[in-house]
Amino acid sequence: MNQFTFEAKQKTFLLGFMILGLLCLVVSYFADSEPMHVRFWTNYLHNTVFFTGIAGISMFILAAFTTAWAGWHTGMKRVWEAFSLFLIPALILFLPIIIGLWGHWHHLYHWADPHAVETDAIIKGKSSFLNKYWFSFGTLIIVGGWAYFAHKNRGFSLAEDENGQGISDNFWHHRKMRIYAAIFLPIFGFTSAAMIWQWVMSVDAHWYSTLFAWYSAASWFIAAMAITILMMMYLKGRGYFEHITENHLHDLGKYLFAISIFWTYMWFSQYMLIWYANIGEETIYFRQRLDNYRPLFFANLIINFVLPFFILLRNDNKRKYGPMAIAAILTLFGHWLDFFLMIKPGARLTAIEAAAEHAGHAGEHGGEAAEASHQFLNFAFGFTTPGLLELGIFLGFLAGFVYFVFKQLEKAALVPQNDPYLDEAMHHSVWPYPEDGHGAHDAHH
Questions:
Q1: pTM here?
Q2: Burial 286-325 (b: 16+ CB within 10 A, else e)
Q3: Per residue in 93-126, pLDDT tens?
Q4: How many angstroms separate the Cα of 277 from the Cα of each of 30, 213, 272, 281, 283?
Q5: In Å, how far from its chain's centre is CA 11?
Q6: Which of 146, 190, 203, 415 is the most exposed place for a label (fewest CB within 10 A)?
Q7: CA-based end-to-end distance of the chain
Q8: CA R_g for the chain
Q9: d(CA 62, CA 150)
Q10: Rounded to whole angstroms, how far apart are CA atoms 154 and 159?
């Protein structure tokens, strides 16, 4: 079957989880024990950034493969096209955060407080970049730009289906895709770093790391690969993508394995260099997480490196549904947890300090953040560890993402029949396994 049908029972199932997520989000607002409704706002920011990043990195994956003249992925590229188009609703998801920044509805960012800018030398020094104008217009323009490239890429891909009957026509469309892909790659490389600094790293306004953008982008990449693996398994089980074999699954598994190791290298390098230098404004980030979030801190490393490393170390496991599904589920949840750990601690401290300042208990200087970070914070679901509300919100966002992707898959043929590299994708094989059209082994066993 080359045309996906979004069935009523699938819609009902996904809508049920979307409603669950919305209810959990509402409950997290009214049942928040922390000041400034910080649990609600951090949950919203956390999931919005996570799924926006997956959409953006999916466009990056397509652009990188197109520029590299790759062909093996052609048979599944419609899935990544659908992922990348989620950048359009992602823009809408960011609007409450932007409006809240201007209307002082939330205290996610300490740099958004005018008093902090006036009295804190470190925040004042960063104020030319960390301000509501840069955050708002940077988000709208940059994510809008990513969405534009995703839309153009999708347009050329569909036009190739409709008009690319001759070989010269095929290459005309593909040449256009390659030009746009080559333009997109450096744009995404620079702007994604700026957005990661704005959205995530600036939650801890006194802290900075030159590795943070690489670290976060690697987390997005792994999450995108994990969703791809799970979605391809599901769709293939429903009778779609018959041409996708364990050879394609093997390559997806290699990316999941390799970038998990790269992410760990970034994790270790960032931690080791900051620990070794022992500079106060750098170590505050890890000191706070080790003091107040120690189980999550080490669980992050175990789930995102140790477990997938041993599961995917064997070549055979990258060709089997069972181990690959386990590794994909672990890493998808694990990197969602990674962003949880990036955002929650700093935002919680910002809210506590803002509440104290409004109550007249804060000092007049900018040293409170460094001092407060060393104080032990009481255990709280939604911060010290994800609670049921956080898991429900994650499932709701995930269901919304999948619902959108399925709607996009329904609009076009799953296999781009006129893509010039389709034949390469159809006969893809991975050494040392022989090519036989259906794969050398049964991936279900």
A1: 0.92
A2: ebbbeebbeebbeebbebbbebbeebbeeeebbbbbebbe
A3: 999 999 999 999 998 999 999 988 998 899 999 9
A4: 42, 20, 9, 11, 9
A5: 23
A6: 190
A7: 23
A8: 23
A9: 9
A10: 9
